[in-house]
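User: Run a structure prediction on this.
Assistant: Running it now.
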Amino acid sequence: MMATLFIIYIYVRCRLQPSLGPVLPIEERNVSLAEKLRLLRAGLLPLVIFAVMMVPFVKGWTSLVESSAVGAVTALLAATLKGRMTRKVFEVSVRQTLAITCMFMWIILAALAFGAIFDGLGAVKAIEDLFTERLGLSPWMILILMQLSFIVMGTFLDDTAMLVIVAPLYVPLVDALGFDLIWYGVLYTITTQIAYMTPPFGYNLFLMRAMAPPEIGLRDIYRSILPFVLGDDGRPQPGDGLSADCTLASGLHLWELTMAGTNNKSLTRGRQRVTSGS
């Protein structure tokens, strides 16, 4: 849905201002069939790896972790068959993978320890009473405040750091408020994508600046990103637009996941955990 909104915006904007999306010159469009096939063949391998990894997951044959392992093995075989998997490349890949895995394991361990202590002290119940009883906020108002906090934190933190900081507090609170945890995970993903495009320290903005021509400055990127932030939001509506449209989008994404993977083992396990936890 968000991709459709982006496509519609770009199409309408280029139709109104053709200079923003000029037509390619004739000499660049006259590409021979052999050249087209060569360029197509160069992009087939990543698509094959993606298909081998995602088809079993969507069909419900493998879990998410198992699909990741299938993708890693497929990439290893592809690199070996193309003659690019040398001992040095293999050693560097294994060392970097091990370093990233250990880092995430320590992050998860610290988050679980923090969450256990936080929950053991009764902080989640105290915060829930503060918002619902003393301040008299409805569950949807609390959800809006959570999403706004993600937007603020996303201007200077990445999604992993935000998750480690707020998961011990937000996940039990969301569960206590009666929301579906899988649905909230989709909502969290959408909100972090908005935060990644929010100035002044949005990660995607600096990536765009590195890829843009020299005459394009950060100020131009800041101005151009606003329609895409509103597209992630769903519609430019003040006050309640962020909550209403992001929650609608997350609901649609969850429906798509449910329809595409009714027999998916990872989704079924997640549903069972949510049901047993509530």
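The CA atoms of residues 233 and 242 lie 5 Å apart.
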